[in-house]
Specification:
alpha+beta; globular
Length: about 725
């Protein structure tokens, strides 16, 4: 069998040097104000230039850029070259992106997370494309003896209308490569965009559909071994003893090694390793409390009333507001732990050699993987390479480095290249989870139904701060208190798509509907009134854009024909996260006496939409993810052991349960903001509020399927 490797930045440099001609631009991801510059292909190959990405135009008319951010399904491998192609006036079919390896001396923010890749790279990519176009135009102007201002470009070609001359970019690439790039470059007027804002197919679609090797699971190195690892079966256990004799005697098994709290079976195939793992005889001993879901409910209740809270934000005199209130509204909401469940299970390759370490695999945080490898092996970071493969989902799971750490440990112990592979059960029962949280909300209303006081307490299990104290409605209520209490547990947690806001938004938006009802006001108008207060007479600092939030609320209300549809029960939700604003209306109808979710109408302000197709997929996918987990997702524990171990026990939304999702983007011309996560947080609240309208029963706990109002619809 052959070795499969991703095309890397290093490969690109070799190709560039071999080509010996064309235009090569270096530009800095870390500094959006720095001008791109022409570099020599031989300098690129020798590594003697200090730019951290490259744009090349070959004499064959091909256009290539190196991209630092891992592709995890968010579409940057398509969006990034679209931005370059727009400013370059390139033929889209000729543009491609090469995945860059880890290089944190050159790259900045070489990570996928927080919906930040496009906002970070937008201006840098535009400058690179515009600079390349400038150089090509000036090279053609010099050759044709005409003013550069008279040359136009389109579809990777140069035109001089007066003389009738034309040429491809490739014909002038080498000449352009001998010019000096300008220190300041004029970018296109956004109104003249031709490619940006259009629907473009994902550049990897064909390779994915035809099974080409793209993902970490596809990676193969001649002579490598495989490892399946047994981790403690309960959170709170530690390894006591191992009898591996029977496992070692099984076919294909090379070794069984222990490290930290794990036992690794190493062999020639994953199946052989998996079967041998079943033959291990392992004893564990208790190292921490073995918690059950019943324990968590008791802990939540106790800490909610008696826990020592950390104040996150306080405005005005909250005690006086509640003392003088005409009406007080209280409610509690609770969310369970959730696994990430990416389609591609965890895997990673490591080769600990005498002179350094090679790492290959799907990671959202390649620098974290290298840092952990340095700790384990003692090698300095510069002796450790990380090659990033395409990733079959992550949702925050691959922000952790545990799977990479395991691969390094095993390779070091067996002195061979090793690929660690997790089973679905391994990840669902021994990975990291969305933290479980309970919220208590209280609102004080005056005699006119105005909200004069607001309190939120969040109690989280390994959640850090389970609130977002500066998000709406902060700034719109004169007297406000937001605090939190934390419980430390042996259960491992980590970021889960739209961390914290994925469940906080559902709770906040559901509660605001409860308050609006108690005030006798329409839920949409109630929110708009609060935002007008935040705009005209804010209470403390307002850290969200009031006008952008108002705009998506009004757009969603308009597109859903809010409150005017007969026989349709509508629920509203709006949220700000990851620099973007999303409002959603859930629509429920009653069929044969049962409520059924039929539609979600979403209004999205993420700034300029680069790829309409990819953006629609991100929004629709986020909504389906949000409503699916709100309705069905549940991870419970008994004595530290997860009750659910695979999809036969962990309920996901099914195809026939997915509603129609209608998406409308706000066209405000601002630079792109985040999109991979912001559509998920409002989804649960829109559904919960719509179900209340249909059933007059509140859905205060996730998953909704366990709530009485939801019974019988699945």
């Amino acid at each position: 069998m052959s070795t499969f490797n991703q095309t890397s930045r290093r490969d690109f440099m070799k190709i560039a040097a071999a080509a010996g001609g064309g235009l090569f631009l270096g530009f800095n991801w870390s500094d959006s104000t720095a001008a791109p510059a022409v570099v020599d292909a031989r300098q690129i190959a020798a590594g003697s230039v200090k730019f951290n990405s490259y744009l090349s135009i070959g004499t064959d008319n091909s256009i290539t850029i190196v991209s630092p951010n891992p592709e995890i399904g968010q579409g940057i491998k398509t969006a990034f070259p679209m931005v370059v192609a727009e400013e370059l006036d390139a033929d889209w079919k000729l543009v491609k992106t090469v995945q860059g390896n880890l290089d944190n001396t050159q790259f900045e923010r070489q990570v996928t997370g927080g919906s930040g890749a496009v906002p970070h790279s937008w201006e840098r990519l535009r400058k690179a494309g515009a600079t390349a176009r400038y150089l090509l135009i000036n090279a053609a102007a010099a050759k044709w003896g005409v003013p550069a201002s008279e040359i136009t470009t389109a579809d990777s070609k140069l035109f001089h209308k007066a003389s009738g001359k034309s040429a491809s970019y490739g014909e002038f690439a080498e000449a352009a490569g001998k010019l000096t790039a300008p220190t300041d470059i004029k970018l296109k007027d956004e109104k003249s965009f031709k490619l940006i804002g259009q629907s473009v197919r994902n550049v990897d679609n064909k390779n994915i559909a035809t099974g080409k090797p793209l993902f970490g699971l596809d990676f193969y190195r001649e002579g490598m071994l495989y490892a399946i690892i047994q981790r403690p079966k309960a959170f709170g256990y530690k390894l006591k003893s191992v009898d591996s004799a029977a496992a070692k005697a099984m076919p294909g098994i090379v070794d069984v090694v222990t490290f930290e709290n794990s036992v690794a079976v190493v062999g020639k195939s994953t199946w052989q390793c998996k079967k041998a793992r079943e033959a291990l005889k392992i004893e564990y001993e208790k190292a921490a409390d073995l918690e059950s879901s019943e324990d968590h409910n008791r802990i939540f209740s106790n800490l909610m009333d008696n826990g020592e809270a950390t104040v996150r934000r306080k405005n005005g005199d909250v005690e006086a507001a509640f003392k003088n209130a005409a009406k007080i509204v209280k409610a509690e909401y609770q969310c369970p732990f959730l696994p990430h469940s990416p389609l591609e299970p965890m895997n990673f390759f490591a080769h600990v050699r005498e002179d350094g370490v090679e790492l290959v695999g799907p990671t959202q945080t390649p620098d974290r993987a290298r840092g952990e490898a340095a700790k384990i092996t003692g090698f300095p970071p510069e002796k450790i390479t990380v090659e990033i493969t395409r990733q079959g989902g992550g949702f925050g799971r691959r922000l952790s480095a545990d799977f990479a750490i395991e691969a390094v440990h095993v390779s070091k112990l067996v002195k061979a290249p090793v690929k660690v592979i997790w089973t679905r059960e391994d990840d669902m029962t021994g990975g990291t989870y969305r933290p479980a949280v309970r919220y208590r909300f209280e609102a004080a209303l005056d005699k006119n139904g105005e909200m004069i006081g607001y309190k939120l307490r969040g109690v989280g299990i390994n959640s850090g701060n389970p609130t977002r104290e500066d998000n709406f409605p902060s700034g719109s209520v004169d007297n406000l208190l937001i605090d939190s209490v934390e419980h430390k547990s042996a259960i491992t947690t980590g970021p889960w798509r739209a961390p914290i806001t994925n469940f906080l938004a559902y709770a906040e938006q559901s509660f605001i509907d409860e308050v609006a009802e108690a005030a006798g006001k329409d839920p949409v108008e109630f929110r708009l009134a609060l935002l007008e207060k935040a705009k005209k007479s804010p209470a403390g600092e307002v850290k969200y854009d009031v006008d952008r939030m108002i705009a998506v609320i009004k757009l969603a209300a308009e597109k859903s024909n809010w409150g005017k549809k007969k026989g349709v029960y509508q629920g509203f939700s709006v949220y700000f996260s990851h620099r973007s604003y999303v409002a959603q209306v859930g629509e429920v109808v009653v069929e044969k006496g049962k409520p059924a979710l039929k539609n979600i109408i979403a209004a999205v302000d993420c700034g300029i939409v680069i790829n309409k197709s990819g953006s629609l997929q991100q929004v629709r996918g986020g909504i389906v993810d949000g409503i699916g987990h709100a309705m069905f997702g549940n991870m419970t524990f008994k004595a530290g052991v997860p009750d659910q171990s695979n999809f036969n026990g962990f309920r996901l939304i099914r195809m026939n349960e997915i509603p129609e999702v209608e998406v409308h983007f706000v066209d405000n011309g601002i630079s792109p903001t985040g999109l991979g996560e912001p559509a998920l947080p409002p989804a649960g609240g829109a559904v919960a509020n719509a179900f209340y309208k249909a059933t007059k029963q509140r859905l205060r706990n996730q998953p909704f399927i366990n709530e009485q109002a939801f019974k019988g619809i699945s």
